[in-house]
Amino acid sequence: LFARIGVELSRATFCNWAILAHRSCGRMLELMMDDIISSPVVGMDETSVQVMNEENRKNTTKSYMWVSRGGRADKSVILFRYNPTRGEDFANSEFKNYEGIIQTDGYQGYNTLGKKEKVIHAGCWAHVRRKFVEASANSKDNSSFAHSMISMIKKLYEIESEIREKKYSDVKILELRDKESRPMIEKIGGILTKHRHSIAPKSLTGKAISYTLDLWPRLSVYLDNPLVSIDNNLVENAIRPFVVGRKNWLFSGSPRGAHASAGIYSIIETAKANGLEPYWYLRYLFEKLPACKGDDEIRSIMPNRIDPEIIAKFRGGVD
User: Fold this and answer.
1) Could you give the CA distance from residue 271 to residue 117 in angstroms, rounded to a whole number?
2) Of the candidates 20, 53, 57, 156, which lies 20 to 30 Å from 296 by C-alpha distance?
């Protein structure tokens, strides 16, 4: 775009602009993390990223973007954090003071989170379903059993679909889950326990059974809390733009660039989650943020807190 109007700019210049923009938003990102930590429910997931010039690591070594989603249901915060490893130490340090429910998939790096005194670990039925879908695709691998599990899990999702469509109150949600979802989950658990030792453990179906039963206490957490979803799909959806983008830009040139990427994705994805058009929100943010005096003023323009009407009026004034 710049080249078309005769302005030649190097890639390094563009990258440095992004890094400087991220640095200027540093305090706002810290306050966004505070909003996540104060949330009653937080979803977490992670995905790989290739980062060049990491200290004492080869350029081909995998690094990771950890993603958290929290805040109020109608004022979500999505935060990306870059870390060189996938170890549990990072998640523990990020949420060392957290009290509430953390929902994740079955990755072992999250296990110690659920062992914290004031943390409840919730599981994800979408990941359970995927295991049985994989098994059902193999006609030689007890596919009929896998299909029956998929059908029962489908009924759990139909109940959640009714809850969303009819916008039930918290009390009604708990009543419906207790009346219809809990018996179905107990039925699933009984069947899986019965067949755990009769189906080859190394088969896809056997692995799906073991995966589910190993996570069993976590999979019923959502029944008792109307704020908890049946799965962690909202976080996975937040990661998807990063995963799609990664196919194009391939890697970050340095840890500093990876941190900047994480911060900018955090701002844009949080803006999108709150119904803000990212371009116009960023224009407003970069105009107003330098003039903010103190945390209260910064909070007032955070993407999960700002009134969308303010952005609409700003856009109209610029147009």
Assistant:
1) 33
2) 20
Mode of pairing for the β-strands spanning 119-122 and 62-72: unpaired
Question: Which residue has tokens 């009543």?
Answer: 175
Q: What is the mean pLDDT of residues 121-129?
A: 97
Query: Cα dihedral angle (303, 308, 313, 316), rounded to 10 degrees?
Result: 80
**Which residue pairs, CB below 8 angstroms and at least 24 apart, start in 11-17?**
15/253, 15/257
Q: Quick one: tokens of 113?
A: 């989170």
Give the other-Cβ count within 10 Å of 183's Cβ.
10
Distance (Å, rounded) from C-alpha 103 to C-alpha 221?
9
Query: Rounded to 5 degrees, what are φ and ψ at 4?
Result: -65, -30
Read off the pLDDT of each residue in 112-127 and give the average, rounded to a whole number: 92
By C-alpha distance, which of 65, 116, 61, 128 is closest to 92?
Answer: 116
CA pair distance 248, 268, nearest whole angstrom: 18
d(CA 190, CA 184): 10
What is the percent of the chain where pLDDT is above 70? 98
Does 192 score more than 80 pLDDT?
A: yes
Strand bridging mode 62-72 / 41-50:
antiparallel
DSSP 3-state assignment of 161? helix
Q: What is the 3-state secondary structure (H, E, C) of 200-249?
A: CCCCHHHHHHHHHHHCHHHHCHHHHCCCCCCCCHHHHHHHHHHHHHHHHH
The answer to whether 131 touches 145, Cβ cutoff 8 Å, is no
Cβ pair 254, 52 in contact under 8 A = yes
